[in-house]
Amino acid sequence: MAVNVTEGNSVSGDTVKFSSYALHKCLIGFGAINGVLNAGIFWLMHGGDVTMQFDLVSIVADLVITGLILGAILFACAVPLTKKDMRAGAFIAPETFGGVASIVPRSYGAAMLVVGVVAGAFMGLLGVVAAFALSAPLPMVAMMVLKGCACAFGGAAAGYLSLVFTTRSFGGE
Fold it and tell me: Where is the chain membrane-spanning (predicted)?
């Protein structure tokens, strides 16, 4: 029996395509949940001073460092969970991966590093665009929203690369 990914861990016997599995996991599990958690952590860290302002450098530095950490931690969590879902037959692995999947090494440590760097670079780029679009410096609440959104997008990207690594590396088990 397979794990039905649309209903969490309930056993239903359904197997879905990899694209459907990845979309659900990346948008909700790795994206939205990461965004909410990181925005909440940001509020707990900076909520005492709502007059705080964040300039371009502090926005980008905060998002890049967060992305590096988020990507590595998410990779470490996603790989064993995806292996478990693969063994349960939750999704049908594709024959090949194209495009961005080619940047993910087959070595666990190297892949974790690449996923962290990609998430950090992606989130830093989002920070630069947002800082110019929103006319930095940003107030604390705007930075909290930006960090939540950037973590959602960075988490989704890191999650997808983690799924690709796991499926490609452990698909034959």
Answer: 26-45, 57-81, 110-134, 140-165
